[in-house]
Amino acid sequence: DGIRITPRQSSFLHSILVDAAGRVGVSCPELFIKQYPTFNAYTMGTNEDHLIVMHSELFDAAEPDELQFILGHELGHIRNHHVTNMTIAQFLANGAATIVELLAAPLVVAHNAWSREAEKTADRAGDLATPSPDACLRALVLLASGSRKLMSEMNLSEYLSQREGLNTVQAKIDLWLGVHNHPHLVERVYSLIEFIGSPLGKSATRKMSSRYGESPRWLEGSRMSSPGSGLDSVRCLGSGSVAPSFCRSCGFELSGTSGTRGCANVWTPLSTCFVTTTSSQRMIGIAYGVTCNW
């Protein structure tokens, strides 16, 4: 059940979807609003036939520019051919028989590792689909807080300090065991800020701004609690170090020197940052060298 969004059914949201799809570079998929009391949106189907579902609670709480990031994120999954992999993972998690779950356990761990990086890749697509990087960060923090009221007093720098809790032994064990198929939201916020300030992020931003006649976006101030709590206070993250670069094929940070850089977290070493994979490798995901095409 749900309401299909069309030019004649919530034209406001449909126009946001069309704009985001154009920026990401994909055909406009079907979008449904589903009555459900949680903050969530997801893409389901296959790489060739898919649709986006957004929960009504999230639609009611998010502002227009935040909705554009959320839709851009889902469109990023489509652009990077994540959808089939995500559908298979959902089956393994919820629909498979116990014996299949046991046999597939190593694959689930590998897939969850791929999925965590796929979410960061989709966040980067959401950033490029949205004129304001501040809106991207607000959307992610909104998902973390679950409260529109709390957003008016949200201190971004204070929120980012929670990332220190991910260094505990238990958190690292959970990560190694592949318990989570999504990164912690504070890690996604931090990763997106790194991307916005990276050479690749800046280059993509310049191209997008030029294409749409928009001013440079990184210089905007944050609408989250101020002073000293918005983008301006976190734009120098990692100050003194070289801004990270990201593999355009898989979304992982690159390591090594120019000409020999590979994907640091991929199990199979890569000689370059562009990867050609077969359809069977795409089904397996990270265990064979990952699948993104951004």
Distance between the termini: 32 Å
Name the helicity range.
40-55%
Q: What letter string, H or E per element, gives the SSE order? A: EHEEEHHHHHHHHHHHEEH
- Tell the overall outline: globular
What is the typical, i.e. mean, pLDDT? 76
DSSP strand tally = 6
With helices defined by DSSP (H or I, 4 residues minimum), what is the helix count? 13
Widest sheet: strand ordering: 1-2-4-3
Largest sheet: 4 strands, mixed
What is the rounded Rg?
19 Å
Query: Strand percentage, roughly?
Result: 5-15%
Q: Quickly give the structural class.
A: alpha+beta
Oligomer: single chain
Point out poorly predicted stretches: 225-244, 255-294
In a few lines, what is going on in this structure?
This protein is of the alpha+beta class.
What would you note in describing this structure?
The chain has 13 helices and 6 strands. It is 50% helix and 8% strand. The longest helix has 31 residues, at 98-128. It is globular, with a radius of gyration of 19 Å. β5 (254-255) and β6 form a beta hairpin. Mean pLDDT is 76; it is low at 225-244 and 255-294. The protein has 294 residues and is of the alpha+beta class. α3 (64-79) packs across α6 (133-145). Strands 1-2-4-3 form a 4-stranded mixed beta sheet. Strands 5-6 form a two-stranded antiparallel sheet. It starts with a strand and ends in a 10-residue tail after the last helix.
Features of this protein?
two-stranded antiparallel sheet; 13 helices; 294 residues; single chain; globular; alpha+beta; 50% helix
